[in-house]
Amino acid sequence: MNGKRSRFMSSALLVAGFVMYFLMNEPQTTHAMHIMEGFLPIPWAIFWWVVFLPFFILGLRSINKIVKDHPQMKLLLGVAGAFAFVLSALKIPSVTGSSSHPTGTGLGAVLFGPLAMSVLGSLVLFFQALLLAHGGLTTLGANAVSMAVVGPLVAYGVYRLITGANGGQRVAIFAAASLANLSTYLVTSFQLALAFPAETGGVLASLAKFAGIFAVTQIPLAISEGLLTVLVWNWLQAYNAKELVQLRLLKREESL
């Protein structure tokens, strides 16, 4: 009983810490977060919504199964969502109409799979757009495809690839979080390039321009996010080892 209470309090303190950090450090600007409201032409905004919705529906099924099979995972789902919310709200202005920032989706993808993170990530984007005027509702589909779909898919694939090859788990966590971040911005660059092709060179020239600008800030941010995610993973392993064992991310003997 005391162990459960201790894990609950530790998780609650982590969520509270994220929220307090966000409130104390959120820059007071409302014009750059992901791809902002109204920036994409309507046909492209609709297209990315259509691409995103099937993943969201499958993600709802995945979360329902997780909660049904493991009701005690609800708080850990909240921690994954809070982690993504806070990290993706710490932004650096970049390409016009967008920004550079951590994404925080790698952790949730490793814990619960990429489909569950498509829901958590899109909810993060929705509340940021609705409450903080960061991003937008028309561009939510595009932002969700890059941050809540592709990023988690890359994170999950990289984690499984490295651990399957008997690589170190912390190396796998670092690589998953970092590459989820970078892949999100490659997709964002592609989305912007499709919507705004260069007069000379078309989509490829525009893609090279957007990706090159993003890379200046995004590469060091991706490395930092990878290191931070490893620290959070160490914390989870210390205080939520039982849940990690149930998720088959930790061997029982490693939790002792």
UniProtKB/TrEMBL annotation:
The chain crosses the membrane at residues 42-63, 75-92, 112-133, 140-159, 171-198, 210-236. Coiled coil: none annotated. GO terms for cellular component: ATP-binding cassette (ABC) transporter complex. The keyword S-adenosyl-L-methionine does not apply. It comes from the Bacteria. It is a multi-pass membrane protein. It is found in: Cell inner membrane; Cell membrane. Its main location: membrane. GO terms for molecular function: cobalt ion transmembrane transporter activity. Pathway: Cofactor biosynthesis; adenosylcobalamin biosynthesis. Pfam families: CbiM (PF01891). GO terms for biological process: cobalamin biosynthetic process. InterPro entries: CbiM (IPR018024), CbiM/NikMN (IPR002751). Keywords: Cell membrane, Cobalamin biosynthesis, Cobalt, Cobalt transport, Ion transport, Membrane, Signal, Transmembrane, Transmembrane helix, Transport. Part of the energy-coupling factor (ECF) transporter complex CbiMNOQ involved in cobalt import. Belongs to the CbiM family. Forms an energy-coupling factor (ECF) transporter complex composed of an ATP-binding protein (A component, CbiO), a transmembrane protein (T component, CbiQ) and 2 possible substrate-capture proteins (S components, CbiM and CbiN) of unknown stoichimetry. This is Cobalt transport protein CbiM.
